[in-house]
Amino acid sequence: MLNFPRWKIIMITLLSFMGIMAAVPNFLTEDQLKNYPDFLPYKQVTLGLDLQGGVHLLMEADLTEVKKEKLESKRADIRDALRAEKIVLRSSIRNNAIHFKLTDNSQTEKALSVIEDTVEMIGGSLTGIGIADIEYDVEAGGVIVVRLTEEGLIIHSDEVITQSIEVIRRRIDGMGTTEPNIQKQGTGRILVQVPGFDDPQKLKEIIGKTAKLSFQLVNSAIGPLDRIPPGNERFPMAESERRPGAPESIVVSRRKILTGENLVDAGLGYDQDNRPVVSFRFDRIGGKKFADVTRKNVNRQFAIILDGTVISAPNIQSPILSGAGIITGNFTIETASDLGLLLRAGALPARLTVVEERTVGPDLGADNIEAGKIAAVIGLLAVMVYIVLSYGVFGLVANFALMINIGLILGILSTLGATLTMPGVAGIVLTVGMAVDANVLIFERIREEFRKGKAALSALDTGYNKAFSTIIDANVTTFIAALILFQFGSGPIKGFAVTLAIGIVTSMFTAVSMSRMIISFWAVRKRPTTLKI
Amino acid sequence: MLLKLVPVSTNIRFIDYRKFAYVLSILMIIGSFWLYFSKGLNYGIDFEGGIMIEIGTEGPADIGAIRSVMSGLKMGDVKVQEFGAPNDVLIRLEHQEGLTVDEVVEKVRDALPNAVKGEISYRRTETVGSTVSGELIADGIMAVVLAIGAVLVYIWFRFEWQFSTGAVIALIHDVILTIGMFSITGLEFNLSTIAAILTIVGYSLNDTVVVYDRIRENLRKFRKMPMVDLLTLSINDTLSRTVMTSVTTLIALSSLFFLGGEGLHGFSAAMIWGVFVGTYSSIFIAAPVLLWVELQRETYDDAEETNMEVLPPK
User: Fold this and answer.
1) Domain match, A268 and A405 both
2) CA distance A293 to B58
3) A119 CB near a chain B CB, below 8 Å?
4) Cα(A481)–Cα(B205) distance, rounded to whole angstroms?
5) What does the pLDDT look like over A76-133, one tens digit per residue?
6) pLDDT at A506
7) A438: nearest CA in chain B?
8) ipTM attached to this prediction
9) Does any domain span residue A186?
10) Quick one: DSSP state of residue B294?
11) Pairing, β A121-122 against β A97-102
């Protein structure tokens, strides 16, 4: 007990010092932080929505749509592959399956081997073996039925969600607000939290738009009431683009000249009359293709289609060779820069709908954080006074350990970049109350041993040793509960579990190692014969 | 002179009062069930789904007027309540068929000036779909069950299965009484409340483990002592620690409850109740339960002792 090896002293001091240094930035103002030396930790704890206000959206991806699109593209792939082998067929999609009816059933064997070649192995980056995306079977009447596999569909949906998160992150980053928290939640859901932002409508507009952009040639020969010939499709004009007397919809060729994927840049620009427009630039391949098409189709009209609506249908007056262009329309500066942002960030691979929405005004946040702060500080002071009253000198040591403990919790939370929410604050205050328990167990034990007639030093030693087993059991139990909460809880439960778990680890460290070290220094110096405890 | 809430040496015959405690606990458990099934819980938006709008008014708000204006909108069950301060009002609405959330909020905004004088600030709006609520409940229950299960396995490994039985009975007792407390007070039951209940689970276990630890130690030390006396001794040995820890935790929680603002109210209330119940159950439930499930006292021979003890760091 009394002989603390030097390496241990250094370790304990160093760990505490590092923890405290990591906690320091939280107490600095923005200006002070700017002048703060680079080599020191600078991260602060991010405050959650409930502490500083903000917008919380839970978005759900339309997975049936994802499945439908996947079926469509698979159907097109297989059909093309079969036709390349001169196999004549008719195909249809019914009951979530693609049905191929061959004209000549003797070709079934050959068709199956072609289909086998189109099977893609997806996922499996860890195992090396992927999972087949489709399975097929020959059913009554020689119809070949192709279905998407359950596992493949799950992997595909996961990819869609991951891509969506990427796109959302790019879009929100483009808005230049504070760090958003974007997470996958369950299957097919995405949680978006933007602290310090109080306009949910704007956020929904930015992340709710699929932003699928395509350039398609207009088939001006067909009037609004005519039947749409094969290979063409009809899109409504955007409301802002409707002119009195002009048709409300437009028929375009199904073939997409280019899509949003070919864009490398887009943003706010101005036309010659100084009206806001969206300017864009194609990538190299896109630019070349656009030049070719415009050269061949001078004086024809093409349509720029965004999420199923024609937002602009300009005439090709001369070939566009620069690989750049503008979209004119009835834009304001804001709508033009928003659309530019959407195009830059790319299209969402699936349509997202809002299932949960929360806005916390910043004033409520301010009330909350102020009250929470005051409550935490007063609670802490009261606990410390009570401890000193109960344990005297030992209480002072316990309080010192407690302060270091709080510093360490803050330091670790800052380093992890964790988000501190109200339940998180509660978790810290709770650990403060409970961290004392470890010291209480030790001190009570020392008191007990001393009363039994042990010498002061021996009572200290036995006290620490005997209390240790209890402390381990008690803390591990709570720690296990915290871990499970972290793993299976959501939102606030998680935030609470994080601070609780960190608090347990740091309080074990400070209450056992640190307070023990200080008490042993004190005992070596004073050589006490009696203990006031 | 140092402050001591508990005398240095006590010999309170806690275990002798166990029959009384059993009756009290059973009555409270029955009461909690009865409350839960008759009165139910005041579920927050996390669980019920719906639209919640919090407004701030210039002067004290007339809750009655707001309520009558709201019911005039014919949007089903509307809850209007004061939220912390007299000029803070919380309005909760059900999801409306055929109306989007924005349309509902718009209607409320149009109607409110009829009941409120002066500026109205819209502090927050929250919408939670009912499917989400189902998932949240399932998640919450799953987390509770798993946490309890994991902790039981740990106690089983560290002690004996009999101790696990005692701990789980004490634990379920605490959770049921906490739910009963929420029903009787009508405090909002939301996700933070679940966090609180789980902490109560942790706190109660922590307390139980400390008492059990001493029982285990005394079982080795006094192999001939009658079980009732041994349990009494162990509880008294740990009594001053139990009181000390409960009081410090209560000090911290009271500060949260009285000063922490509306956001922490339900949470700290649950925890304060949990500290009382958790302490009570460790002494009057978890310990006496060991009298029913016969402990194999031969296990605590000297030979076993070295294996049982966790060695402190050298």
Assistant:
1) no
2) 63
3) no
4) 10
5) 888 888 888 888 888 888 888 888 888 888 888 888 888 888 888 877 655 566 788 8
6) 92
7) B245
8) 0.79
9) no
10) -
11) unpaired
